[in-house]
Automatic annotation (TrEMBL):
Active site: K201, K254
Complex formation: Homooctamer.
Entry keyword Repressor: no
Protein's UniProt name: Delta-aminolevulinic acid dehydratase
Keywords from the named record: Heme biosynthesis, Lyase, Metal-binding, Porphyrin biosynthesis, Zinc
Organism per entry: Phanerochaete sordida
Pfam families: ALAD (PF00490)
CDD domains: eu_ALAD_PBGS_cysteine_rich
Catalytic activity field: 2 5-aminolevulinate = porphobilinogen + 2 H2O + H(+)
Ligand binding (Zn(2+)): C124, C126, C134
Pathway(s): Porphyrin-containing compound metabolism; protoporphyrin-IX biosynthesis; coproporphyrinogen-III from 5-aminolevulinate: step 1/4
């Protein structure tokens, strides 16, 4: 029997659970998880979202019941999405920075209830505009960049004033990172609020359940003139570099699983920045659906997907699996 050559034998290095864990450059921890939550303007709401199993729209009065047990289990951060059901939408997204609106009320409530919880806010107009697009439009329906960036900066500043630790623009308007950073600095929030840019956000088919949850589908057209084309690697690299240059503190890639190469590019282009990725609603729904169909075990697949993101280079994951990971990471 011919014995294997020394250089052929790898299995000795990972025969034990502990030695397997040493093979990871980065291991999933609770601090890496940011939980996306939907806050609606009915203060007593707790409404399940059918397309996002296990997720719901919550009213501010229900936040303690919702978030309290998760903080007990080690939840470190959330990202808030506003879902206005009653507020009158208009072309400028006026309800986005209403001081009585659900996002601003939720920031204040969560800051008061959980002083150690890190509170990020998604910043976009699509949930608040009558046309459902993420910016301000010209008469022909195209994006009007300058007023869009200015309006996004105004909304971000309002969330920072309310106490958000982080503002995260997901709109993909040109120039918004610079505009937000300027607004934060000029109003005394330069050193008090993190700017996390959805830098490489693609025009993906995976946002369906979110648009359903947030009521933010565009009333006409699509988002292909501002979200990146899925086949565009070069544009993603340029967007990442631009946002670094415009003052982003954290870079994000979204969606995550079909864009692991972009995560890897971002880690190379912005090695000195934290790197986030968003396991979006459709990715979550796919993982859950596959488990329900018996294709794989849910927990095993949830870890495998998120570990692939860490392997590609991200340091922070926005995921709807956060509550389950808080349990799984304790087991
Ligand atoms: N700007 C809106 C926004 N912010 C986050 C998501 C997607 C999040 C998810 O699917 O989980 C979207 C949807 C979109 O751009 O259409
Ligand atoms: Zn939007
Ligand atoms: Zn958004």
């Amino acid at each position: 029997m011919a014995s294997l050559d020394i250089s052929s034998v790898l299995q000795g290095g990972y025969q034990h659970p502990l030695s397997r864990s040493w093979q990871a450059k980065r291991t999933l921890t609770k601090g890496m998880l940011m939980y996306p939550i939907f806050i609606t303007d009915d203060p007593d709401a707790h409404v399940e979202i059918p397309s996002l199993p296990g997720q719901a729209r919550w009213g501010v009065n229900k936040l303690e019941e919702f978030i309290g047990p998760l903080v007990q289990k080690g939840l470190k951060s959330v990202i808030l999405f506003g879902v206005p059901l009653k507020a009158p939408k208009d072309p400028k997204g006026t309800p986005a920075d209403d001081v009585e609106g659900p996002v601003i009320l939720a920031i204040k409530k969560l800051r008061a209830l959980y002083p150690d919880l890190y509170i990020a806010t998604d910043v976009c107009l699509c949930e608040y505009t009558s046309h459902g697009h993420c910016g301000i439009l010209n008469e022909d329906g195209s994006i009007n960049s300058a007023p869009s960036a200015a309006r996004i900066a105004e909304v971000a500043l309002a969330y920072a004033r309310a106490g958000a630790h982080c503002v995260a623009p997901s709109d993909m308007m040109d120039g918004r990172i610079k505009a937000i950073k300027r607004a934060l600095i000029d109003n005394g929030f330069g050193n008090r609020c993190t700017l996390m840019s959805y830098s490489a956000k693609f025009a993906s088919a995976l946002y369906g359940p979110f648009r359903d949850a947030a009521g933010s589908a565009p009333s006409f057209g699509n988002r292909k003139c501002y979200q990146l084309p899925p086949q565009a690697k070069g544009l993603a690299r340029r967007a990442i570099q631009r946002d670094v240059n415009e003052g982003a503190d954290i870079i994000m890639v979204k969606p995550a699983l079909p864009y692991l190469d972009v995560i890897q590019d971002a880690a190379e282009l912005a090695p000195d920045h934290p790197l986030a990725c968003y396991q979006v609603s459709g990715e979550y729904a796919m993982v859950v659906a596959g488990a329900r169909a018996g294709v794989y075990d849910l927990r095993t697949m949830a870890f495998e997907t998120c570990e692939s993101m860490l392997r590609a280079g991200c340091t922070l994951i926005l995921t709807y699996f956060t509550p389950q990971f808080l349990d799984w990471l304790d087991e």
